[in-house]
Amino acid sequence: MNKLNIYDDVYKPEQQAFPATENDVIDFRLLVKSLWKDKWLIAVTTLLLSVAAVIFALYQPNIYRSDALLAPAEAEQGSGGLAALAGQFGGLASMAGINLGNTGSSDKSKLAIEVLTSRFFIQNFIEKHDILADVMAAKSWDYNSKELNYDLDDYDVTSNTWTRDVSEPFTAKPSLQEAYKEFVAKMIVSTSKDTGMTSLSIEHVSPIVAQKWVTWLIADINADMKNRDVNEAERSIAFLKKQIEQTNVADIRSILYKLVEEQAKTIMFAEVRNEYVFKTIDPAQVTQEKAKPKRGLIVLLGVFSGIFLGLFISIIRYFFKK
């Protein structure tokens, strides 16, 4: 006689509430067969994306890069005298707006880089050299005729008028704020921590334009930093001369004359040196080889994208059929 086991209906941990069925297990052999059945789907997807990648790569204009290697210019010879006066006459100099602290070339070059990439400098640069069309509407470059081709939907070069169709607050003629964003996207500035050298690069559809812009940028930033220091020194001299006229104490007058002398040295060295902040080690050149686009890489990405997309669609079809 069989005895009733009162524990027969007790839940056992090893028993699953929802036991796995045969359909829940992925059969890789069936999956491979399904992928093989969809081989034409995968092939067509790969072909379509590959053709699209080829067309996209061919329609991309060549982008040329021109770069220059810059070194920080040596500090002014007068900076040694300023440093010697800093400990004794720092308070008086600060009243005149004279900086007797570190005037090394590294600090000037760091400041120059910040000025170089600022909105104010770039916008003035675009206006000064009248390059708004080259920044905003340049489409391609004809290497044989050495001429730029512009986007006719944006700019009519024959009448020198802007034909952009944009909505408010934008206007047909691009603003300097728009031009600044486009210009900065074409400019690359990097400084090596090991050598302190600065690399300045411009990417453009025209290699000639890229080389011109790099050369102009170097000249303009040197001139801008020079003018800043000269103007500051002239204002300091004017203040010091007023103080000299107002005092009869010989020692104070002697100190003030020394400060005037140091500011005069700053002006003198600035006027005789064109490469005020950056010295050009390797000047920009008109390059013959394009930097972008990498058309082979674009096509390769298109091929792999087509393969993966085809596989993905086929796998989704397989699971929906199950």
From TrEMBL:
**InterPro entries, per the entry:** Bact_polysacc_biosynth/exp (IPR050445), LPS_length_determ_N (IPR003856)
> Which parts pass through the membrane?
40-59, 297-320
A Pfam family assignment? Wzz
Keywords, comma-separated and alphabetical: Cell membrane, Coiled coil, Membrane, Transmembrane, Transmembrane helix
Membrane topology annotation: Multi-pass membrane protein
**Is the keyword Metal-binding in the record?**
no
Sections of the chain in a coiled coil: 223-250
Primary location class:
membrane
Superkingdom of the source species? Bacteria
Q: Spell out the subcellular localization from the entry.
A: Cell membrane
Boundaries of every Polysaccharide chain length determinant N-terminal domain copy? 26-128
Keyword Signal belongs to the record: no
Mind telling me what this protein is named?
Answer: Wzz/FepE/Etk N-terminal domain-containing protein
Organism of origin is Shewanella vesiculosa
